[in-house]
Specification:
3 domains, globular, 10 helices
Length: 239
C-alpha cells in the first residue's frame, strides 16, 4: 500500500522499528495526541507514513533536551496542524541546535537502534566518511548523535559519496562564515552589557538564529531548484 504521495506506508511494527521505539510507545503517543491517527487500510490495519516517523524523531529530540511529556504535548500543539515530514525535520533540526555537541561510544546494536534501521558494513563506512561515526576499540563506535539521523537520511539519497562530502564542505564553509559575521554583528551590540546578560542573550538568540538560517536557506534552495528545473529541456535531454 502507498500513500497519495507514493510513499510506502508502514505498519505499527515497522514504524516502531524505524523510529527505535516500542510499539507500546507508539500507541501511547497516539492516545496522548502526540501522533496523528494512522490511515486505516484493508482488514482494519493501520498504516503510518513519513510524517509519523518525523514526529517521533522530533519527540525524541525534545526528550533529549529534557522536556517532560506534558511540555512536549504543549510544544506540538503550538505547531501548525498541516506540517509535513519535511517541515517537522526542520523543527527537529532547530531543536537539536539547542543542545551541546553529544558524542557517545555505542555498540553496533545500539548504533542501529539509534539509527532506527539495520546498517550494513557499507552504510557504516558511508557514515564514517561523513564524520558521523568512528570505529573504536572492541567493535564499538563513537557516534555524533547530533548528526546521526541526518547521516542515516543521506544513506537513501541517490547521490555519490563524493557529492555528499563536497556538499558537506560547502555547508561547513558557508555556515562558519555566516556564524563569524553574525558573531561580529552581535558583539558590537552587546559590548556594553554584563557577562550575565550576554549569556542570556546568547541562549535566546541561538534557536532564533537557527530558525532564520534554516528558513532563508530553504527558500533560497527552492528558488535555485526552481530556476534549474525551469531551465531544463522538457524531454530531459541536453539543451
Amino acid at each position: 500500500m502507498t500513500t497519495d504521495a507514493g510513499e510506502p506506508t508502514l505498519t505499527i511494527d515497522e514504524l516502531a522499528a524505524r523510529a527505535g521505539v516500542t510499539v507500546r510507545t507508539v500507541r501511547f503517543y497516539g492516545t496522548k495526541g502526540l501522533l496523528p491517527p494512522p490511515v486505516i487500510g484493508p482488514r482494519r490495519v493501520g498504516h503510518y507514513g513519513r510524517e509519523h516517523l518525523a514526529r517521533l524523531a522530533l519527540i525524541e529530540e525534545l526528550q533529549q533536551q529534557g522536556m517532560t511529556l506534558a511540555a512536549i504535548e504543549r510544544y506540538l500543539q503550538q505547531l501548525p496542524p498541516d506540517l509535513d515530514a519535511h517541515d517537522l525535520a526542520i523543527h527537529r533540526a532547530v531543536v537539536a541546535s539547542w543542545a551541546p555537541d553529544a558524542v557517545e561510544t555505542v555498540t553496533r546494536a545500539e548504533l542501529e537502534r539509534r539509527a532506527g534501521r539495520v546498517l550494513g558494513d557499507d552504510d557504516v563506512e558511508r557514515l564514517a566518511a561523513m564524520g558521523v561515526v568512528e570505529a573504536g576499540d572492541g567493535g564499538d563506535y563513537r557516534v555524533d548523535l547530533g548528526l546521526l539521523r541526518l547521516g542515516v537520511g543521506l544513506l537513501d539519497v541517490p547521490l555519490s559519496q563524493e557529492a555528499i562530502l563536497a556538499a558537506r564542505t560547502v555547508l561547513i564553509e558557508h555556515s562558519r562564515a555566516a556564524a563569524h559575521d553574525l558573531s561580529q554583528l552581535f558583539r558590537g551590540e552587546v559590548a556594553q552589557r554584563a557577562a550575565r546578560d550576554v549569556k542570556s542573550l546568547s541562549a535566546h538568540m541561538q534557536p532564533l538564529v537557527m530558525q532564520a538560517l534554516l528558513t532563508t536557506f530553504q527558500r533560497s534552495l527552492k528558488e535555485e531548484l526552481r530556476q534549474w528545473l525551469n531551465g531544463m529541456p522538457e524531454d530531459g535531454g541536453s539543451a
